[in-house]
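To fix ideas, we close by showing one paired sequence and structure record:
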Amino acid sequence: MLVKQETSAREVDRASTELVELIGLASEAMGRATEAVFAPDASLGAGLNSAYRAVDALRREVDSHATETLAVRRRSAEPMLVPATIAAVHINAEAEVIGQLAREVADIARTRRCWPSVPETVREALREVSGICLVMMGKAADVVESRGAAGIAELAACDASADRAQRVLYRRLLSRDCPIDADAAVDLTLVARCYERFAWHAMAVGRRALLLDVDTATT
């Protein structure tokens, strides 16, 4: 039994390491897209395709590993790793969505319309939202690395901060005193929505990470 536990621990260690790297790559892709949003031009978004390909390649590797692990456990009738492996599959799927959100933000940055009309107060609000969301994904990676043992409370606190920052951004966008072009307002709303979903998926990663603890998941 001890040998099985040690083997399971090693496999979860491997999965956790891969998932932390995957979340880091997805967060890096969103970081590049965010730089493009605030850059004078959208040239910074040009390198996002390579970042997204790196996310996709690692995603496929994690998915293959999880599939193999589930198949082995099904044949051996050993359930110990099943919850952790399913959690890895779900976190893998969350990373795919995060990568897609990064591409959406980069696309908006490349095709943005009338952004010179955006007031600095609105830009500041968007910077705060994007900054909090990127910090959240770093916290989510910490939760994965600790397998839910640490960081989940900090992640939840960041989520509350992101909600408050989103409300400030929307209030400024909707203010009668905001002299902003309608096209730019639409772009900013779409970007803000991407960050809102980004934060939601960061929280989802944290919740899934709780199942990476083999001892907790099997007791």
Observations:
- The CA atoms of residues 7 and 170 lie 50 Å apart.
- DSSP finds seven helices and no strands in the chain.
- The mean pLDDT is 78.
